[in-house]
Amino acid sequence: MRALCPLLVLVFALSGAVGACSSADGTDSSGDGTATDSANGGMRSMYLPDASFDPTPNTPTRTNDAGTTPADAAVVDTGRIECIFNRDCSSNRRCECTDADGCWCEVGARGTGSVGVTPCTSGNDCASSLCVEGPLGSPTLCSDECTTSNDCAGDLPICATIGFIGQICVRTPPR
């Protein structure tokens, strides 16, 4: 039965439930302190409620300064991982984006551009790795994530929720 455990975890995950395998001797391999449920062959499961989208990516370990933060130090350098901001990568990597491949943590120096002030040609120019459209007739500018408009500055004064990114600083919409 133990050999089926990875398959059962996949089936449970695809069906909206969570399962965790325990060792054959009944010990708690997950470390959560719960006992093995022998009625289901070492599989513990619980139904998860419908997921909801939380557009706010900020967590207590993240900061809006896009520099070397505690979040950077906590990211294990396992090679190429997807990212949105530089802080999603280990400190020796930056979040680099291409139209063909999307955004991935790659070895390289991070930009230093500031939110709403520094012109950019790509995310590599920005401390956050995020380069967005500035006001009409202006260059593109470095942006960053935000929780309120107080986190934004310069020509990107509005904190707005953008799909697949979260809340970032953007320009005032044209009238």
Notable characteristics:
175 residues, mainly beta, 2 domains, two-stranded antiparallel sheet, two-stranded antiparallel ribbon, 2 helices, 8 strands, 9% helix, 22% strand, globular, disordered N terminus
Explain the overall architecture.
The protein folds into 2 domains: 2-47, no CATH class; 70-170, no CATH class. β5 (130-132) and β6 (141-143) form a beta hairpin. The protein has helices at residues 5-14, 70-74, and strands at residues 17-21, 43-47, 93-98, 102-107, 130-132, 141-143, 158-162, 166-170. The strands form 4 sheets. A two-stranded antiparallel ribbon has the order 1-2. The longest helix is centred in the first third of the chain and has 10 residues, at 5-14. 26% of the residues are buried. With 175 residues, the protein is mainly beta. The protein has 2 helices and 8 strands.
Fraction of residues in helices? under 10%
The secondary-structure class comes to mainly beta
- Counting DSSP E segments of at least 2 residues, the number of strands comes to 8
Please write the string of helix (H) and strand (E) elements. Answer: HEEHEEEEEE
Termini distance?
64 Å
Q: Biggest sheet, strands in spatial order?
A: 1-2
Shape: globular
Look at the structure and give the mean pLDDT: 69
Number of H/I helices = 2
What can be said about the biggest beta sheet? 2 strands, antiparallel
What are the segments in which pLDDT stays under 50 over at least 5 consecutive residues? 1-68
Percent strand: 15-25%
Cα gyration radius (Å): 21 Å
Tell me the count of domains: 2
